[in-house]
Amino acid sequence: MDVIRPGSLQDCLRILKTEHTIPIAGGTDLMVNLALNKISPDRIIDITGLQELKEISLSDNFLKIGALVTFSRLAGKEIAQYPCCNALREAAEKMGSPQIRNRATIGGNLVTGSSAGDGSVAILALDAQVELTGLDGIRKVPLSLFYSGYHQTAIHSDELLTAVYIPIRPGTSSFQKVGKRNALAIAVASLAIYSYIRDSHFEQIYIAIGSVAPTPIRAVKTDLFLQGQKITSGVIKEAARIIQDEIAPITDIRGTADYRRKLIANLLADQLQQLSESKN
Amino acid sequence: MAIVRSTEPHAFITGLDFSELPSDILYFTAKDLEENIIEDAIEDQPVLAYDKVRFYGEPIAIVAADSHQKAVSFSQKVKVKYQKLPIVETPKQALEPDAPLLFEKGNLLSEFHHEKGNVTESFEDCDLILEEDFHLPIQDHAYMEPDAAFAWMEGDVLSIYTSTQNVFHDQRMIARALGIPLHNVHVMAATVGGGFGGKDGHTVQIFAALVAYRTGRPAKIVISRREVFIGTYKRHAVDLHLKMGFQKDGTFRALSSTAYLDTGAYAGLGPAVMGLFSEHLGGPYVISNVKIDSYLVYTDKAPAHAMRGFGAPQGAFATESLINRAANILQIDPIEIRMKNALTQGALGTLGQKMEHVVGLREALEVVRDSDLWKEKNTNQDPSIGFGIAAGYLSCGLGKGVPDSAKVEIDREPNGDFTVRVGLVDIGQGNATALAAIAGEALKVPLEKIHLIMADTTQTFDCGSTAGSRSVFIAGNAILAAVRDYFSHPETGRGFAETEFPQSKTDLNVIGFPHAMYTFIAQAVKLKLDPISGQPQLAGIFAATEAGKVINRLSMDGQIQGGIAMSIGYTLGENMNYRNGIPDNQRFTVYILPTAEDIPPIQNVSVELYEATGPYGAKGAAEVATVVIAPAITSAIESIRDLKINRLPLDFEQILDAKEKGSVC
Ligand SMILES: Cc1cc2nc3c(=O)[nH]c(=O)nc-3n(C[C@H](O)[C@H](O)[C@H](O)COP(=O)(O)OP(=O)(O)OC[C@H]3O[C@@H](n4cnc5c(N)ncnc54)[C@H](O)[C@@H]3O)c2cc1C
Known about the structure:
Chain A contains twelve helices and 14 strands. Chain A is α+β, with helices and mostly antiparallel strands. Chain A has a domain at 173-279: CO dehydrogenase flavoprotein, C-terminal domain (Enolase-like, domain 1). Chain B is α+β, with helices and mostly antiparallel strands. Chain B is 26% helix and 26% strand. In chain B, the strands form eight sheets. Chain B has a five-stranded mixed beta sheet.
């Protein structure tokens, strides 16, 4: 197995065209899969030298986050200034451990496509788009269309995920997860909400949930129900009921389907409750 | 080197095929051993399985190559043919009349029955009787360093560095399996990355020794984490039914228990673990009427063996849980109820054994009562916050009838420094620091002038195992005696002594228990129950420990904190969980150890009573902190939610669900 470290994005994309070649960013997923013999590439391209993939910038009301931005950075000041991106910062704070956060990148998190990906779930609630770059050009895909199946995404094998675009809007977002311990915990269930409340009513609300389906998913029915609503205890109860109906989690080593349903309902109720309290 | 391991939990081996191995890849089987037995108290375990495998992961053959990678990849090319056998999954199933048998002698390895007073009658007099079924899981030691050894030949002498708790046992084990004289085997402990009981037996020593001996070339083995999980010793799972009778005033009047300990496929130190389980089951209390029935049973799982606490945490979970519930029902403060029944020096323990040495349980309970953490219980207004307490004890030394001594030599060097030779291993707990301090103090020289040589079969004398919370006590006393010897004839420049661990005067006609001396603890916990997930968030732990006089405060606190952390894992998530003979959790990704974020601030206060027979007043302190934090935690949860937690690890879903009063988790 060869490891190549190209100097430019163009070089990188050219090499990616060859068969059995995959990029490595932080390696926190890839190295695990190598060790477990789940993958056996001929060539690994180390993309961590590509400076242009490490930028965070704001233009036209979109926050552009380079694919190589680490979770440590996502948990820091650069994201903290945008209340609508709180969910991403909170997810980054709770992700892995300091060592993992220092290496793991947002691009790797998205491309891995785990339904338990903390960054993925948070960003999904932020109505973001991903930028996929190939030799033939750049395409932008809304994150809600990015995931196609268990650990499968819309990226082609000769493309790199170069950036994520998050619309900067009024409103706030939040992220919570339940793992089996307080650090280094894969989510048993996770939930992120972006919402904008005007005159006590939800002007806009997007809910994303993790670990309850093959991919991170949006809770569209619950969004629809909450749209235009005022947060009352009755509404919270009803939303918690709807979201439980909306999902079809499975039982695995980390938790039963039932437990996951309850966790999602509780996470939703708790975050709605917090929203109602912060509003007052 | 690599190990070919069984992929079946229970089967006859009908064929071994090495034909895909090229000639430069070497392999070794049972046939290459002079005697295929792991020397131990009960000799039922082969070094390499040859006719039958009894657990998933059991070693069958060794593959050696000039690189680890090669050895591993060719070990996968070895074909083992099996004739599958039905498996034995639980001790109760193992004892059914038509159960499949692991050994022809039957699945019951050992049993212990003890009766004191009149249990049947005394239950009739009780004001409150509580009884429940409890289940405790299989725990892995999760030592940081996987089992490892490095062996090489120098002439006739086989030298080996191992990760071990007892080099002299390793020496006997290797010599016997290879059929070479004891003096041709030189064992040294490397700096050990944790053992916790799991390295107090055969890990990989004989494998490395075999390859070096047969090839004449250096041989190194380091097993993978997965192999540690599937292939090495574990803590015993226990199913027990416990019944306790109380008087209105809180007196513990009667206790009866029937317990099944799951020792896995081979005995290991199982019989001794069953002994200490039975000895500690009643807790550090005076209980006049006791009936204990314990069964040690084979199943098709990795052998259970010594693990820090050695059978005590399993029983303490049940007993302390019932005591906390009784205190609640009888409306007696949980500290008061323990004070009332606490053992004191001279009192008789569960098995009728006398407390022959200093006992500081009441003092420890008092310290907890006065702690800020416990006082907060009375002022707390938050219904999601709860407090729990438990008390316990753990024996020191190897127990009745087991040779338990240490020989130490001290030599004055020409420059006035001293070399102190101690055959024990420092397993990471810091006994080297304590022993050097003891030697320096006694020889009246600064610590820098003490040079310890430890755990080397050529340069030190047999001091037994670093186990049984004994090493500072036994080697400390031997050092003090050797110093006295030196001072009686300083001109020789040499001091030598052998000392014995005090043994209990009670004889129950069994080997390994009871003990003469115990260390005592009381531990309190504060936690918050997360209403979203049913998970407890530990907020603080206050521990009071009476382990005699403390030699080194820092390592003492380290021992207590480490022991508590280990049992927090036991409580919150650790579980090997065998299904159809195969463990679910073979990686740290799914075997859930607590992280630093899960361990709350732990304050330990040592109640420093002076133990007259100990070195500078010390007793043992290495294991006791594992014994009771689990029931303290579950009691705190039970104070928040009206439920009974009768099994570990916690099932967060059941805790979240527990809406009905008194539901059992
Ligand atoms: C101990 C541990 C704890 C963890 N805890 C968590 C946790 O709490 N929450 C969580 O969400 N995850 C967790 N993870 C998973 C992992 O850290 C994350 O998914 C991380 O974001 C992956 O990023 P990376 O840069 O390391 O990706 P890599 O491992 O380098 O790559 C992952 C995959 O994405 C591809 N890839 C990477 N970057 C790009 C790119 N720019 N374009 C195209 N393809 C790309 C790679 O080819 C590979 O297939 C944990 C992992 C470990 C080992």
